[in-house]
Every structure is written in C-alpha cells, then in structure tokens.
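Our example copied in:
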Amino acid sequence: MSRGRQNQRLKKLIILRGLPGVGKTSTAEMLCDEYARPEVERGIFSTDRYHKRSNYNRKYFQRNHQRNREDVFKALNRGVDPIIVDNTNISLWEMWPYIHMGMRQGDYDITMMELPKGYPQHKISINKLYRWCHGNIPKRTFRYFEARWEKAYNIKHVLNDSYSINRWERSKEKWNVQ
C-alpha cells in the first residue's frame, strides 16, 4: 500500500438495521452531522422515501428497494461521505448489496449498526414500537420482522452468507454489473 493511501481518510458507509420506530432515521441524521466534512456531499439513503411516494403499496416494494440500491451505488461513485443506509435490514441478504458495493469501491470503512444496540437481547416491546409509529404499522408486521431477524456478526459474515451470494450473483442491477 502506498504511503499516500495510508494517510488518506476512509469514507464512511454506515448500514443501520432495526425494526420500525427504534430511531434509525434520527440516528442517521445525527451520524450524518457527526461525520460530515465541509465541501463533501453527504447522504442518507432510505427506501422509505420511495415507499412514501407509492403510498406504501407493497406492489412497489421490490422496485423501491432497487432504486435505493441504485442511489447508494451512484453516491459511492461520487465519493459521498458519509453514506448512511437507513432501512430495516432485517436479513443478511438485504445488507449484502450495500456491503458488496462498499467493498468493491475500496475506500469506504463499512459499519453495521443495530438499533437498539444489542438487539434482539435488548429489544423494545412491539406495543411500544407500535405506539411510536402512531399505529401506522400493524403489530403483525413487527412480529414478522422479529421472526425474520438474522444476526449479523460482522461484515465478513454478511459477505460470506451463501444465501445472499446465491440471491444476488445473477442480479442485473447496475451496482452488480462488473
């Protein structure tokens, strides 16, 4: 590694994960402010932005997630710092594309952050999350997310997940075309 590269500060790619209502968006805003640098574009990327436009119609969920992945891909290529992915990211395969993109880019420090810290051992009750979301998300959705939650030990654990690899290896999305 060249000396110039060693002294270069790595940009940040932070992937938030957690059930709705745990504070991902507030945390994303705080982290964005904390890591922002003058004259460098920064960004929070949330699929909810697209879900809101489609009135949370499940018919568009796959397309909305694809658009968010494309946005992150473009941001990585522009050198945005920090990049914060503000999605539930319940399963490893949901985080895999973001981590894969960041690793391929090469100049990003990638962090996964669970909210609340230590989830699921330190979880917030479904009733409380339901209230915090003003009843807009059915309790069955929270139960579904809890049942699907996959522990992510570290970045390598996610990248080496065979289901994720098989799910994404044939993807024709722009971020995955080499």
Observations:
- The first strand starts at residue 11 and ends at 17.
- The CA atoms of residues 99 and 121 lie 24 Å apart.
- The radius of gyration is 17 Å.
- Residues 9-169 form a domain with the Rossmann fold fold (CATH 3.40.50.300).
